[in-house]
Amino acid sequence: MPRRGRHRTTGPVRIVAAVAALLVTGGIVVAAGSASAHPRADSEDGSGLVSTLTRSLGNGDEEEQSPDDSDSDSEDQDAGDESAESGSDTEDQDTDRQADDQGDDQNDDQAEDQPDDRPSGDDGGQDGGQDAGQDAGQDAGQDAGQEEEQFKGRDEAAPPDAEDFVDIREVEPGSGGGRGGRFSEAGTFRVDCGTNANGAHRNSDNIVLGPGKRNAAQHVHDYVGTTATTFSSSDEELRNASTTCTDGDRSTYYWPVIRDLNGTGPDVFDDGGGLDGNFGSVLPATSVDLTFHGNPTEDVTAAPDGLRLATGDAKAATNGDANANARWTCTGFEDRTTTRYPLCPGGSSLVRILDFPSCWDGQNTDSDDHRSHIAFPEEDGSCAAGTQPVPALRMTLTYDRPDGRAFALDSFPDQQHAPQTDHASSINLMPEALMDRAVSCINEGRTC
């Protein structure tokens, strides 16, 4: 369901970024994760650094200046103001002089005899000041308008609510099934692509759902597989890059990061990071399981090269449940899942389960909405008429999370880190021989 009654910061998110950076660079924040180093709420409140900052800012309506441009912008503004003031003062003096000299024919004649194009210090100062002020205002307005159009909702960012969390022991067993998880009981194929624990491949692009647009996600993704994935990568570029996967799999697999809100990330001033309301240090996944499953009603066929896949809705908090497919649980409690952040007991790890659609239309590797070419199975696991099953990908991501509620999924600013916005994407670029092997393993009921 769409989210209602969410708390919101009252000033632009970049102010929060500026305050956070000042705390870091000024020595207030001295060590990530330290209770003495970071402003934070009680661990059961879970708001952490970002909550403290947003609450302390109040009605911050001022726009943050770029550190690189602040001096030059100020100088330009001062120069424009001084020229405008000079022009205004001169204009007043001219008015007084005309009043004093009214009726003086000689002065009038001399004024009329002056060439129209002669240099005028008075007019130059006035016009220069006005032009500089107008140009600066227009440029600032255009830049702000373009940024607002491209990166919307930044003034709506906020940390997650307490209601976004639930003790996993209070979740009923068998609940939270999600879509796409009805598989055949035998036959799986697993690809090993590592975990991106060192953060070597992260960005805020989304080549599947937002191709061609930088920072399309407005939050950070972790990647495994081909190492060249950006907003503008071609399939050929992805195929020619190195890969973190074994067996030459150059597919790309990616998902939004989870952050420790008591930590401090390196991207506090970056798009996708602090500028879009995503604060804290990134929690690396301790394990990434990428397993392809079979269909319970018929054999699977090979997925085509370049097939785009997406699961979940990054804007489910406002869009509703139509495309949402978030499932959260804890190790030792896998028989129960939830769309909320689970609070796991001691010794239990946080788990995300992301099932992908697997009923392909047999023709297209992409579609206008980047979803219609491949659908989720019906309730019984079968594919609807006109579609055929391909190997069904399940991503299972595991994390060691901080105590209490001090963690959150990266999100669009206006989604306010809602757990139901969890999502992931992939582009199939397996070599043909590897895909054929996967199909054989699955259809023959083997575990590979």
TrEMBL record:
Disordered: annotated segments = 34-185
Q: Where is the composition biased (Low complexity)?
A: 132-144
Biased region (Acidic residues) positions are 60-94, 101-115
**What Pfam families does this protein map onto?**
DUF1996
Give the DUF1996 domain ranges.
211-402
Compositionally biased tracts (Gly residues)? 122-131
Q: Could you tell me which PANTHER family the record lists for this protein?
A: DOMAIN PROTEIN, PUTATIVE (AFU_ORTHOLOGUE AFUA_6G11970)-RELATED, PTHR43662
> By what name is this protein known?
DUF1996 domain-containing protein
Annotated source species: Actinomycetospora chlora
Q: Highest lineage ranks of the organism? A: Bacteria, Bacillati, Actinomycetota, Actinomycetes, Pseudonocardiales
